[in-house]
């Protein structure tokens, strides 16, 4: 027995030396219902809550019958549902068209134009030919086997694998280390695939080989870009330092190519942000003056996780960092433009009874109380000077924020993929073009270094390949030929952009057209 034990026993009418204290709740009253408790351990009374809801419902019906209150119009909810369905329709169609257009952008480069550009950057005889001679020779020597197919299968395979690797990284977001390891492993594989495609386009690897062998990814194996080295053996003249120097020289071409690709990845997103920001200023100068009608929260989360794939940075280069399904600038623009779900769907003020019940209601009861809101009126003190003290008057005032008739007349803007499709695709076209121009010199140096090492190892003549100096082989003729290839690439992608925008205009519907089509199908 503790210190307070005797006092407790004495208060219960027992001897202070009695150690056994029996606890109980007394005799059970058969006429009294058992006390119920919620999940938080608070006493609840379902009968009382039901009576309160019935009283509030009867009070509201009386207020509506005598004309003091009007029943809520169903037009606001139907309009919100109509706008939400319109939003979902345009977003779905816009994502489909955007995905198809981006795959066409990738196919244009993979099926010939990337190869023509890389041959101009590497080989000397493309720099010596005048522009019109270059065009005539390209047309006369054109063949599908030699100009279209080389590197195409590898590029498409890299794009296909990128989507699976991206999904794998998204599923491993809870683990901080696993996505980083996956991204680094994919970068190693992706750079080798891009290098294999480039060597095939340069004619150094047969075009009949669709994909690289596994030995291509292992350094110092047969066919690897990191060429084999002689072993130390018993030759004392070949010291370890000399052998390590040869290892670095053998790996230098691949390291330079990987550094170029990494720099391109890091710069592509910044270029995309700047291009989209300037295009958004031109297209949407006063966009913030409109209000939007986004879908319900569930649809927003679904869309965030299933957006279209980010285009490749080069023909096979991609960034695996977070959500890369759309430009980051467009994500911020779309997120900032989304306000409340519907101007008319504003929350009503809580009634006196619903606020008073919160001291013992559970979470489920809070949701039930919202469905039985008491209709109240604003009451303020009388402003009359001769009124008696404590006299109050009541006045009915319309609520402007919750009036569906006033809110339905407000303008709204549907911020969907279909309506922003032109700016999204234009941003992709200009970003790819600027990236190719900005990294032409680093790519030329890396490709020349790899090509010269490859030719030296397999005893292929390399007199047609300039040195790795930045301006080696540079002439105005070479510059003109390079710009002509880039301009033709930009023209083809612009035609695809125009076709995609034209198709999007066919699926575009105004509010009146969508309402007529929606009600006809229902």
Order of helices and strands: HEEHHHHHHHHHHHHEEHHHHH
Share in β-strands: under 5%
Q: Mind describing the biggest β-sheet? A: 2 strands, antiparallel
Helix content: 55-70%
Shape: flat
Give a verbal description of the structure:
With 522 residues, this protein is mainly α. It has a domain at 106-284 and 415-515. It has 18 helices and four strands. A two-stranded antiparallel ribbon has the order 1-2. The protein is flat. 25% of the residues are buried. The model is unreliable at 286-371 and 404-408 (pLDDT under 50). Residues 29-38, 300-313 have a biased composition (Polar residues). Residues 1-48, 290-313, 327-348 are annotated as: Disordered.
Topology:
Elements: H1 5-11, E1 36-37, E2 43-44, H2 46-65, H3 75-122, H4 125-128, H5 131-140, H6 144-148, H7 152-171, H8 177-201, H9 240-283, H10 297-305, H11 328-337, H12 352-356, H13 363-370, E3 378-381, E4 392-395, H14 404-408, H15 421-438, H16 440-457, H17 476-507, H18 511-521
Antiparallel strand pairs: 1-2, 3-4
Helix pairs in contact: 3-7, 3-15, 3-17, 7-8, 8-9, 9-15, 9-16, 15-17
């Amino acid at each position: 027995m503790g210190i307070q034990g005797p006092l407790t026993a004495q208060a219960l009418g027992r001897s202070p030396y009695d150690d056994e204290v029996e606890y109980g709740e007394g005799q059970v009253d058969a006429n009294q219902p058992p006390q119920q408790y919620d999940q938080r351990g608070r006493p609840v009374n379902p009968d009382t809550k039901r009576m309160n809801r019935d009283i509030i419902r009867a009070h509201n019906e009386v207020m509506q019958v005598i004309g003091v209150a009007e029943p809520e119009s169903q037009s606001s909810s139907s309009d919100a549902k109509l706008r939400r369905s319109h939003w979902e329709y345009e977003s779905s169609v816009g994502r489909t068209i955007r995905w198809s257009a981006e795959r066409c952008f990738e196919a244009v480069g993979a099926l010939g134009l990337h190869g023509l550009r890389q041959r101009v950057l590497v080989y000397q005889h493309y720099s010596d030919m005048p522009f019109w001679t270059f065009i005539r020779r390209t047309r006369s020597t054109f063949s599908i086997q030699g100009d279209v197919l080389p590197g195409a299968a590898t590029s498409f395979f890299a794009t296909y694998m990128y989507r699976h690797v991206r999904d794998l990284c998204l599923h491993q977001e809870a683990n901080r280390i696993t996505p980083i390891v996956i991204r680094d492993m994919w970068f190693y594989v992706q750079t080798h695939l891009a290098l294999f495609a480039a060597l095939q386009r340069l004619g150094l690897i047969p075009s009949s080989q669709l994909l690289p062998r596994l030995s291509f990814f292992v350094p110092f194996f047969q066919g690897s870009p990191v060429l084999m080295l002689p072993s130390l053996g018993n030759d004392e003249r070949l010291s370890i330092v000399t052998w390590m120097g040869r290892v670095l020289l053998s790996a230098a071409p691949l390291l330079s190519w990987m550094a170029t690709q990494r720099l391109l990845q890091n710069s592509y997103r910044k270029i995309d942000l700047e291009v989209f920001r300037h295009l958004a200023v031109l297209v949407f100068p006063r966009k913030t003056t409109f209000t939007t009608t986004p879908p319900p929260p569930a649809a927003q989360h679904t869309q965030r996780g299933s957006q279209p794939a980010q285009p490749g940075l080069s023909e096979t280069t991609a960034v695996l960092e977070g959500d890369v399904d759309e430009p980051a600038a467009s994500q911020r623009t779309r997120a900032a433009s989304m306000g409340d779900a519907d101007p008319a769907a504003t929350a009503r003020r809580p009634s006196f009874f619903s606020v008073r019940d919160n001291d013992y209601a559970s979470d489920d009861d809070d949701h039930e109380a919202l469905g039985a809101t008491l209709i109240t009126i604003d009451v303020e003190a009388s402003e009359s000077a001769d009124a008696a003290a404590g006299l109050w008057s009541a006045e009915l005032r319309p609520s402007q924020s919750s009036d569906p008739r006033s809110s339905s007349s407000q303008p709204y803007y549907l911020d969907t993929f279909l309506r922003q499709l032109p700016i999204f695709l234009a941003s992709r076209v200009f970003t790819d073009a600027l990236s190719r121009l900005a990294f032409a010199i680093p790519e030329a140096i890396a490709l020349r270094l790899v090509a010269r090492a490859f030719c030296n190892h397999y005893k292929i003549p390399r007199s047609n390949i300039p040195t790795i100096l930045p301006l080696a082989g540079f002439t105005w003729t070479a510059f003109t030929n390079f710009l002509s290839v880039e301009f033709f690439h930009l023209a083809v992608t612009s035609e695809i952009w125009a076709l995609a925008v034209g198709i999007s205009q066919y699926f575009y519907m105004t509010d009146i057209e969508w309402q007529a089509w929606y009600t006809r199908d229902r």
